[in-house]
Description:
The chain is mainly α. 85% of the residues lie in helices and 0% in strands. It has 5 helices and no strands.
Amino acid sequence: MYQFLLLIHVTCFALWMGAVAASLLVVRTLEPRLTGVTGDATQDASLLRAYIRQEVKFVDVVFAGVLVSGIMLAQLYTGWTPWVLTKIGLFIAQFVATMAYIQVFIRPLTYPCPPHHYRRWYGLFAVSLSFFAVTLLVVFFGR
C-alpha cells in the first residue's frame, strides 16, 4: 500500500508540474496573437480562457491527489515530521501565491494587450515553477 500511495503522490505532483509547464507553452505560443501583433485577439483570448478552464479542472484534481496521498502517507507510514509539514506548507503557500497573483495581475488583462502587460503571465509561471523547485529541493535534499 505504501508503494501505491507514493506512486499516486509522485504522479500527481508530476502531472501538476507538467500542467503548469504546458500552460507556459500555450501562453508563449499565443503571445504574438494576444498582443495584437498577428491574428484575431478576441478569438484567441476565448481559446486561452477555454484552455485555462480545462487546466484548472485538471490541476484541482491532481492538487487534491497530492494533498490527500501526502496526508495518507504521513498518517500511515512516515509520520508528521517537520519535513512533511514543510512540504504541505509549501503546497499551500504555492496555491495561495498563485491564486493571489492571478487575482491581482492576470484577471485584469484584456486582449489584445501591450507586450509589457502580457509578460505578467510569465511572472505567474515564475512563481509556480519557483515553488516547484523549492519543494523538490526540500524533498530530495531536506531529509
